[in-house]
């Protein structure tokens, strides 16, 4: 069987492979550290003192997988249904459904918490275009 | 068939590269706008719709005008339109695409466009506008492609396409009626709150669209061996004449109601546009150019001598297109916002980036039009002389 | 089974479309997931509830220009409304955003003035804001329900959902709505901003929300709180015992552009009152 236009085809295939594998060979040797979100903000330390343990609105495993959906549900509940009080499934405690005033109240270290995983996953949530980030003080200890 | 769009001589490619360059400039400025915000345009709190929405409104009309060829040919067996119908359908595709691009260019958060589909709002005319425009684009793509493919093979098109062809007739009327409803249902804007708005929109659509089609048909005849037919062009010319007369008449009706009733809310926008209001007369010269061109073109279209001569017919169509472009693509929108709900006059003029984005979208539209026409011409040139029974 | 190339391509095409569609549907299924379940939400006992929130404004109780300015700045400060200024200090009309502000009589009630009125009367100040209409044209035209009616009568704005089409701005007969033509954070002071409330981003429409976030915390709207005693009343007009109901039934109040059928919920008291 004769390969018509073989030259063009082979060259085209090589160009395609070069472009398709670009992300892999471009990052050879790059150190991409595992995300290590830190939860040692002053507010969380206070909570730990008061309740004996660190606890979030829900468990760590739940939040890691579902905080995006949780925030979406909070948004609709607050804006569209006028309900702001959330009952935690893990602890039964009441929380104000607010990214700025609840989540970021404890997690005031966006660079060492939120950004850790978001940067690793190359995710850019645009929540912070509107929701004001806490001003971060320099954390000296980790 | 698509490959025909990529087979062309030097003139074709120079034209496409020229359009591509304009489109690239438009895209560049759109990226600026996307990053900076719509503040890059001349719009502001009191005139919150401007050139983009005006162009969208005008182009929906041009898109709807394909129906003026479909009705005589498919509904009334007017065989003389056999060659020109495809030009109308392809013009519709290009025009609707431009409409969609202008909507995108005008949106503050274009990434959220899915919200219109995820949260359908049947109470909103804009929701229905997105439905009917998408549908019209799909119908024209389907009908244009299937009928042209059939022509190329020298066979009649499949019978099922007839359903879509007939559907396109009320659908074309609907796209422009719904677009008119965007304006005519708003209690806030007395300039637009008129029952004849939809009728005016349809009349101006059926004059501007076919006028453009005549110009395009004459160009097609000049640059290729595909001749849509002298009689077909004359018939379209008559359609344009009647539609333009209706358009001018309906505008006159608006003037009467506004000024004879004496209600300030109805008349003040007309005053701003045509004589100036509270010292602001920015749009007055433009509106009078539109009026003069409308009268000249109507006269030339009504008198058989000037209509039958293709040179003067072309001139009349160009004048008419420019006149309606000013009236509907600019004056209508700005007039609705001036004076504002507080009866203050705050004016609007597009900025340079805004104008270049607009030009870029027109270039993209003409790129699509040129590609589609190239395909149609190539097919027709090969099947010239073969009459197919539809 | 033998098939020709055309059939093969048709089957391959349809399968890939179906497969792609199914994968998209499964990846995005969270969009159609239900919201919060009832046990996860507990209404705040402190929240102010009403069947139909309304406002009465008595301009005669505003004695100085300062009184009026305090009302607008209380709202704008609470809600991080940007303050765009020209280099000479005047308001930059191009990007201006305002939720509540002052307009003279002839602009608040256009057409109600007559040629014999003194300039003094034509210039009498009135506070204007979103009227939270019963029959709002803005809600009718919104293609995404980003602006919608709450069950308590408030015309609410969901800045998350707004696509920035500005149809609502064209539809509002009162000019109550503002659009973020550029990033509003360019005109918000990060030192004085209210950290408990978000800003907006470019490309969305915003307006007065009758302070829903404050109502949910048991507080009255910021403007009413900042107004002089007896100048602004806020209450449930369906409640026979509310102040607003009592005023509207017993005294002459007017609303803006009533002939349009919008049913505004902001009433302007004529003739002053003793309600305090």
Describe the protein.
The complex is a heterotrimer of chains A (142), B (390) and C (276). Chain A has a two-stranded antiparallel sheet. Chain A has helices at 6-20, 22-26, 42-51, 60-81, 99-106, 114-120; strands spanning 85-87, 94-96. By secondary structure, chain A is mainly alpha-helical. Chain A has a domain at 52-136. Helices cover 47% and strands 4% of the residues of chain A. Chain A contains 6 helices and 2 strands, in the order H-H-H-H-E-E-H-H. Chain B is mainly alpha-helical. Chain B is 73% helix and 0% strand. By secondary structure, chain C is α+β, with helices and mostly antiparallel strands. The longest helix of chain C is centred in the first third of the chain and has 23 residues, at 5-27. Chain C is elongated, with a radius of gyration of 24 Å. The mean pLDDT of chain C is 92. The interface between B and C is large, with 45 and 49 residues.
Instruction: Give the radius of gyration of chain A.
Output: 23 Å
Q: Which class do the helix and strand fractions of chain C yield?
A: alpha+beta
Number of strands of chain C: 10
Topology of chain C as a string of helices (H) and strands (E): HEHEHHEHEEHEEHHEHEE
Which regions of chain C have little confidence, pLDDT < 50, spanning 5+ residues?
A: none
Compute the average pLDDT of chain A. Answer: 88
Helix content of chain A: 40-55%
Oligomer: heterotrimer
Largest sheet geometry of chain A: 2 strands, antiparallel
Question: Could you give the topology of this structure?
Answer:
The complex is a heterotrimer of chains A (142), B (390) and C (276).
Chain A: H1 6-20, H2 22-26, H3 42-51, H4 60-81, E1 85-87, E2 94-96, H5 99-106, H6 114-120
Antiparallel strand pairs in A: 1-2
Chain B: H1 10-36, H2 51-64, H3 67-75, H4 85-106, H5 115-118, H6 125-153, H7 161-184, H8 197-223, H9 230-261, H10 264-274, H11 284-302, H12 304-308, H13 310-337, H14 352-383
Chain C: H1 5-27, E1 53-57, H2 65-78, E2 100-104, H3 105-108, H4 119-122, E3 125-129, H5 137-141, E4 147-149, E5 155-157, H6 167-171, E6 178-179, E7 205-206, H7 212-215, H8 222-226, E8 232-236, H9 243-250, E9 253-254, E10 266-269
Parallel strand pairs in C: 1-10
Antiparallel strand pairs in C: 1-8, 2-3, 4-5, 6-7, 9-10
């Amino acid at each position: 069987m004769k390969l018509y236009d073989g030259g063009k085809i082979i060259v085209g295939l090589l160009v395609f492979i070069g472009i398709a594998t670009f992300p892999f060979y471009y990052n050879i040797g790059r150190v991409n550290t595992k995300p290590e979100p830190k939860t040692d903000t002053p507010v969380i330390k206070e909570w730990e003192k008061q309740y004996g343990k660190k606890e979030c609105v829900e468990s760590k495993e739940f939040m890691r997988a579902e905080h995006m959906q949780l925030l979406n549900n909070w948004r609709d509940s607050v804006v569209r249904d006028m309900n702001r009080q959330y009952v935690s499934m893990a602890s039964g405690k009441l929380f104000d459904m607010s990214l700025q005033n609840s989540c970021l109240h404890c997690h005031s270290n966006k660079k060492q918490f939120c950004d850790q995983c978001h940067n690793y996953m190359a995710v850019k949530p645009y929540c912070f275009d509107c929701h004001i980030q806490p001003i971060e003080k320099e954390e000296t200890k980790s | 068939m698509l490959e025909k769009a990529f087979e062309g001589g030097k003139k074709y490619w120079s034209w496409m590269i020229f359009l591509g360059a304009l489109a690239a400039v438009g895209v560049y400025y759109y990226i600026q706008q996307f990053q900076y915000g719509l503040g890059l345009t001349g719009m502001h709190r009191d005139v919150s719709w401007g050139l983009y929405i005006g162009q969208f409104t005008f182009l929906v009309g041009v898109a709807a005008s394909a129906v003026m060829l479909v009705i005589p040919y498919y509904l009334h067996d007017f065989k003389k339109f056999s060659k020109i119908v495809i030009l109308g359908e392809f013009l519709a595709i290009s025009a609707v695409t431009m409409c969609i691009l202008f909507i995108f260019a005008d949106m503050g958060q274009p990434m959220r466009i899915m919200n219109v589909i995820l949260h359908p709002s049947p109470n909103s005319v804009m929701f229905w506008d997105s439905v009917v425009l998408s549908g019209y684009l799909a119908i024209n793509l389907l009908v244009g492609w299937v009928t042209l493919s059939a022509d190329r093979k020298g066979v009649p098109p499949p019978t099922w396409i007839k359903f879509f062809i007939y559907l396109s007739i009320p659908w074309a009327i609907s796209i422009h009626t719904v677009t008119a409803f965007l304006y005519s249902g708003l209690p806030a804007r007395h300039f637009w709150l008129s029952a004849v708005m939809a009728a005016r929109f349809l009349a101006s659509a059926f004059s501007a669209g076919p006028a453009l089609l005549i110009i395009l048909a004459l160009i097609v005849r000049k640059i290729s061996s595909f001749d849509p037919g002298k009689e077909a062009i004359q018939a379209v010319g008559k359609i344009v004449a009647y539609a333009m007369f209706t358009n001018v008449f309906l505008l006159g009706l608006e003037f009467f109601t506004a000024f004879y009733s004496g209600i300030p809310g109805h008349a003040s926008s007309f005053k701003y546009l045509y004589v100036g209001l509270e010292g602001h007369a920015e749009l007055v010269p433009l509106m009078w150019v539109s009026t003069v061109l409308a009268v000249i073109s109507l006269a030339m279209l009504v008198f058989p001598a000037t209509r039958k001569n293709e040179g003067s017919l072309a001139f009349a169509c160009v004048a008419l297109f420019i006149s309606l472009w000013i009236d509907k693509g600019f004056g209508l929108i700005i007039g609705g916002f001036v004076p504002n709900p507080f009866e203050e006059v705050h004016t609007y003029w597009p900025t340079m980036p805004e104008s270049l984005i607009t030009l870029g979208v027109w270039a993209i539209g003409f790129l699509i039009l040129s590609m589609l026409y190239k395909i149609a011409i190539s097919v027709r040139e090969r099947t010239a002389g073969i009459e197919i029974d539809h | 089974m033998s098939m020709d190339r055309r059939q093969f391509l048709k089957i391959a095409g349809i399968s890939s479309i179906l497969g792609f569609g199914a994968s998209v549907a499964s990846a995005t299924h969270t969009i159609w997931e239900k919201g919060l379940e009832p046990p996860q939400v507990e209404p705040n006992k402190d929240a102010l509830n009403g069947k139909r929130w309304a406002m009465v404004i008595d301009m005669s109780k505003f004695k100085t220009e300062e009184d009026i300015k305090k009302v607008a700045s209380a709202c704008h400060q609470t809600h991080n409304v940007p303050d765009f200024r020209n280099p000479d200090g005047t308001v930059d009309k191009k990007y201006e955003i305002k939720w509540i502000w002052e307009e003279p009589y002839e602009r608040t009630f256009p057409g109600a003035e007559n040629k014999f009125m003194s300039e003094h009367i034509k210039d009498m100040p009135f506070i204007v804001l979103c009227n939270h209409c019963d029959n709002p044209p803005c809600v009718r035209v919104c293609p995404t329900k980003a602006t919608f009616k709450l069950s308590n009568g408030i015309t609410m704005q969901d800045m998350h959902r707004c696509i920035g089409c500005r149809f609502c701005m064209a539809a509002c007969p009162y000019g109550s709505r503002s659009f973020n033509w550029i990033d509003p954070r360019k005109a918000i002071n990060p030192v004085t901003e209210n950290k408990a409330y978000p800003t907006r981003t470019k490309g969305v429409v915003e307006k007065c929300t009758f302070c829903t976030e404050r109502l949910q915390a048991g507080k009255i709207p910021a403007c009413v709180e900042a107004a002089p005693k007896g100048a602004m009343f806020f209450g449930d007009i369906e409640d026979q015992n509310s102040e607003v109901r009592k005023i509207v039934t017993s005294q002459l109040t007017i609303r803006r552009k009533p002939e349009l059928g919008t049913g505004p919920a902001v009433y302007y008291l004529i003739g002053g009152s003793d309600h305090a």
